[in-house]
Automatic annotation (TrEMBL):
<feature type="domain" description="TOG">
    <location>
        <begin position="422"/>
        <end position="661"/>
    </location>
</feature>
<protein>
    <submittedName>
        <fullName>KIAA0423, isoform CRA_a</fullName>
    </submittedName>
</protein>
<feature type="region of interest" description="Disordered">
    <location>
        <begin position="94"/>
        <end position="128"/>
    </location>
</feature>
<dbReference type="Pfam" id="PF21040">
    <property type="entry name" value="CEP104-like_TOG"/>
</dbReference>
<dbReference type="InterPro" id="IPR011989">
    <property type="entry name" value="ARM-like"/>
</dbReference>
<feature type="domain" description="TOG">
    <location>
        <begin position="140"/>
        <end position="375"/>
    </location>
</feature>
<dbReference type="GO" id="GO:0005881">
    <property type="term" value="C:cytoplasmic microtubule"/>
</dbReference>
<feature type="compositionally biased region" description="Basic and acidic residues">
    <location>
        <begin position="94"/>
        <end position="111"/>
    </location>
</feature>
<dbReference type="InterPro" id="IPR034085">
    <property type="entry name" value="TOG"/>
</dbReference>
<feature type="region of interest" description="Disordered">
    <location>
        <begin position="377"/>
        <end position="399"/>
    </location>
</feature>
<dbReference type="InterPro" id="IPR016024">
    <property type="entry name" value="ARM-type_fold"/>
</dbReference>
<dbReference type="GO" id="GO:0005929">
    <property type="term" value="C:cilium"/>
</dbReference>
<dbReference type="GO" id="GO:0000226">
    <property type="term" value="P:microtubule cytoskeleton organization"/>
</dbReference>
<dbReference type="GO" id="GO:0008017">
    <property type="term" value="F:microtubule binding"/>
</dbReference>
């Protein structure tokens, strides 16, 4: 019985034992021990019992009352008790983290002691956050003393209905992947299936933890994940259409880990099957982006001269993405074509594998790429980006108001994130989002002085908080790149000088943005009539050659040497010659494949005076430098390959090789 004679003394939602019984019948005794009960509701009961029993305590006697009077008194007391119960439940909700942390620590300690085959290293570390688990940072992962038992425990936790235990189980699997991959491989299919199911979990904290877990599985298990790609890549791509920004970013990281570590051919198949024809615009964009990464990693020779399956898969996919409704997706489709078009079999492969209805458009796109280059990645319009970012499923009945609803949802998510009782997003993620908002607003400000301040702030952050900049480098430099050719010459010059200082700090961390960075640096600045801007741009290009892996620069430098005009074309051709001298010994095949196409272009179009039609300026000296750099590395093989070109190309090459630079 409850405190006031009611059989149900505590609601189910707040089930704590608070027992202080009242005798049955029409009479009850007030000679009771009225010490405060020990449960959650102790304070409320303690405050209100005296108001009903003070007089009786003084008399210390048993009173008899009528049944009806007693029923009324009991009903009144029951109602007042329920009111206090509700208030205390609210207090319990607000302070649950402190109580759960204390009881959870005690519970975990006793479990660790009681379990003979336990996993003490992990449980000791996690005991203080048992009831409010977070996604562990990679640096926090630790090995288990008994990994076989840890794996069994992880699968048990994932099967539990409690979302907190699911996150704990996912953290277990991440530790196993990092330190005990051979044990995890024994049950990889079962484990992967369990993790994939949690990616679909409706609770965002669990879903995000599962995405991070898949990222670690790709990172540590590498090609052992090949057999699991169909299910994992499909579920990750579908998550790319979610409104939760943090989940989308983690999906992107997981897919990058997949591309970097599994067999490229399997990655191609899983990406195309998982997202090429998806109805959601964000899923198609994400698919195209990561398929482009695979193509860049594989190189054209392997795709177009290798097995039929690669060209048969990649070329039609690239053609389809190049005609997508999204500007960004079209860009990635064109980039795939751009990466492959220097291969001698490219045109023949287009005829063979591109559907006839798409072929004229694709040929026109390739022609444009050869004349103008790839250019910078475009951004979809704000309305399109809103639809891409926030629409969860296509055909939703509320699509007309989806942007507004999604914005409200995002606001609620941020509120939940900051609620310590449901904390699931690391604090540094929120700091990054706020930092990006501030720095990009400065870099895109209307007032040129604010833009300069933004550039100086970025340099300071690169020097003092490089991890923050590197972690958000694509978003930051997407705003910064426009300052490298700002219409205001003061901003333009400051941006170039700042870029020159940042390159030695960031080095190969610039690799994700190198294709957007180089056009912004060279396209206008190397043909600038402002001597200060020209000199600054030249210094930046030189710094890139010194501090960034030249293999990353090879393709963009080839593109600029082939398609730029005027002084910029001469400068980039000479820089390409320098790269050949440095890179050829490491990457002979790639160097020949990419640079020879540029050389044949220059030799084939150069007039007797040394100029190129429509290009302006004399290119003879720069072409001679490139020719001699290649001959120094390739020797007679260069002349042998020139023999397969039109006669005037070989003739021009021989003349330039005899020329004294």
């Amino acid at each position: 019985k409850g405190v006031f004679g009611s059989p149900n003394s505590a609601p189910a939602a707040c089930s704590q034992s608070v027992i202080s019984s009242v005798e049955n019948g029409d009479a009850f005794s007030t000679k009771q021990n009225i010490e405060p009960p020990s449960g959650i509701y102790g304070r409320a009961v303690q405050q209100n019992i005296p108001s009903y029993v003070d007089i009786e305590n003084e008399k210390d006697i048993k009173i008899s009352i009528s049944k009806s009077t007693y029923d009324k008194m009991r009903q009144k007391r029951k109602e007042e008790k329920e009111l206090f119960d509700i208030k205390d439940c609210e207090k319990k909700e607000q302070n649950s983290w402190e109580r759960m942390k204390t009881t959870g620590t005690e519970k975990k300690t006793s479990e660790s002691e009681a379990s003979p085959g336990g996993i003490p290293q992990y449980k000791e570390r996690m005991s203080s956050v048992t009831h409010s688990p977070e996604i562990m940072d990679t640096s926090e992962l630790r090995p288990f003393s008994k990994p076989e038992i840890a794996l069994t425990e992880a699968l048990r936790l994932l099967a539990d209905e409690d979302w907190e235990k699911k996150i704990e189980g996912l953290n277990f699997i991440r530790c196993l992947a990092a330190f005990h991959s051979e044990i995890l491989n024994t049950k990889l299919h079962e484990t992967n299936f369990a993790v994939v199911q949690e990616v679909k979990n409706l609770r965002s904290g669990v879903s995000r933890a599962a995405v991070v877990c898949l990222s670690d599985l790709f990172t540590y298990l590498k090609k052992n994940m090949d057999q699991e790609l169909d299910s994992t890549v499909k579920v990750l791509l579908h998550k790319a259409g979610e409104s939760n920004t943090f989940i989308r970013e983690d999906v992107d990281k997981a897919l990058r880990a997949m591309v970097s570590n599994v067999t490229p051919a399997r990655a191609v198949v899983s990406l195309i099957n998982g997202g090429q024809s998806h109805l959601h615009i964000a899923v198609r964009r994400c698919t195209a982006q990561h398929l482009t990464d695979v193509v860049e990693f594989m190189e054209p020779e392997r795709i177009l001269s290798g097995t039929k399956d690669m060209a048969d898969r990649i070329l039609p996919a690239a053609a389809k993405f190049a005609q997508d409704s999204s500007q960004e997706t079209r860009y990635y489709g064109r980039k795939m074509l751009f990466l492959m078009m220097c291969h001698p079999n490219f045109d023949k492969m287009l005829e063979k594998y591109i559907p006839s209805k798409d072929l004229p458009y694709i040929k026109e796109s390739v022609k444009s790429l050869r004349q103008k280059g790839l250019g910078e990645i475009p951004l979809d319009t704000p309305s399109a980006k809103g639809r891409r970012s926030h629409t969860g499923t296509v055909g939703n009945a509320r699509s007309s108001s989806v942007s507004r609803d999604a914005f409200d949802l995002a606001e609620r998510e941020v509120t939940e994130i900051r609620d310590i009782t449901r904390k699931s997003i690391p604090r540094n993620s929120l700091e990054s989002a706020e930092y990006i908002k501030v720095i990009t607003s400065l870099l895109n400000a209307k007032d040129f002085r604010d833009r300069i301040n933004g550039i100086k702030q970025l340099l300071s952050d690169t020097e003092n908080n490089q991890e923050l900049v590197v972690g958000n480098i694509v978003k930051i430099f997407d705003a910064f790149k426009s300052r490298l050719h700002d219409s205001n010459s003061k901003v333009n010059l400051v941006a170039l000088e700042t870029m020159h200082k940042m390159i030695p700090l960031l080095r190969d961390n610039l690799s994700p943005i190198i294709n957007m960075l180089i056009p912004a640096i060279v396209d206008n600045n190397l043909n600038s009539k402002n001597p200060g801007i020209y000199a600054a741009a030249t210094n930046v290009v030189q710094a890139l050659s010194q501090h960034v892996d030249n293999y990353l620069l090879l393709q963009p430098f080839c593109t600029k040497a082939q398609f730029l005009n005027g002084k910029a074309k001469q400068d980039m051709t000479e820089k390409l010659a320098d790269i050949v001298m440095e890179l050829y010994q490491r990457k002979p095949h790639a160097t020949e494949q990419k640079v020879l196409g540029v050389l044949w272009h220059l030799l084939g179009n150069m007039t007797n005076s040394g100029s190129l039609p429509g290009a302006g300026g004399n290119i003879r000296t720069a072409t001679a430098k490139l020719s001699k750099a290649l001959f120094a590395q390739m020797g007679q093989n260069l002349l042998n390959q020139a023999a397969s070109q039109p006669p005037h190309i070989k003739k021009n090459l021989e003349e330039l090789l005899d020329m004294t630079i």
